[in-house]
Amino acid sequence: MIVNIVVTANLHLSPLSMIELSLIQGAQYNPLKFHGVIIPLEKKVRCLCFESGKIVCVGGKSMEEVRKAFEQLEELLTEEGHFGLIGDFKIQNVVASYNWGQPIDLGMLKNMSIGVKYEPEFFPGLCYRLRIPPCTVVAFTSGKYNITGLKTVGDAALASLAFEEILYEL
Fold it and tell me: Which residues are CB-contacts of 100 (< 8 A; sequence separation ≥ 6)?
């Protein structure tokens, strides 16, 4: 199940006035903590807007949610007098979360694979790098695992199948 899609875009207007953007209803701006304006949109999606015109959209659980968020942001910006089309969309990261349904023996998984990182004294999860698709799986003894570093939504199911094949070999 997809839990977060991070997409970057460009408004092609710079410099953007952070003070003006901060006046949008619900916007958060504290330049001492973060140099962008955080604009909350529907379904917990947030757009981080920067003076350069760069935008980072986080929190979407589907590409449809991300698309709607960018449309909503474009409308808000137009209402505020910023005329420009948002473009240059690029998926930076897709994060998915799954449950194997039974405990995972992380010690055994570490021993059967090369390049696995597992240091339970520092972090309870095991980091397993898949080659196809290129991503990182973080597995926990509870049977739950997260996949991060994906570049397409479709790769989430492929990565989950690849990792579960490895788990079947345990």
Answer: 139, 143, 144, 145, 164, 167
Query: Count of alpha carbons within 13 Å of 4, Cβ hemisphere only?
Result: 14
Task: State which amino acid sits at residue 48.
Answer: L
pLDDT of residue 89 exceeding 80? yes
Instruction: Compute the Cα dihedral for 72, 73, 74, 76 and give only its sign.
Output: positive
CB of 11 closer than 8 Å to CB of 86:
yes
Residue 42, pLDDT score: 81
Compute the distance between CA of residue 33 and CA of residue 12 in angstroms, rounded to an integer. 25
| C-beta atoms surrounding 131 within 10 Å | 8
d(CA 168, CA 57): 36
Whole-number Cα distances in Å, 35 to 18, 113, 122, 168? 9, 42, 31, 46
Q: Is 14 a residue whose pLDDT tops 80?
A: no
Lay out the sheet containing 87-99: strands in order across: 37-40, 46-49, 54-60, 2-10, 87-99, 144-150, 135-139, 126-130
Q: What is the dihedral of CA 56, 128, 146, 102, to 10 degrees?
A: 180
C-alpha 137 chain-centroid distance: 14
pTM of the entire predicted model: 0.90
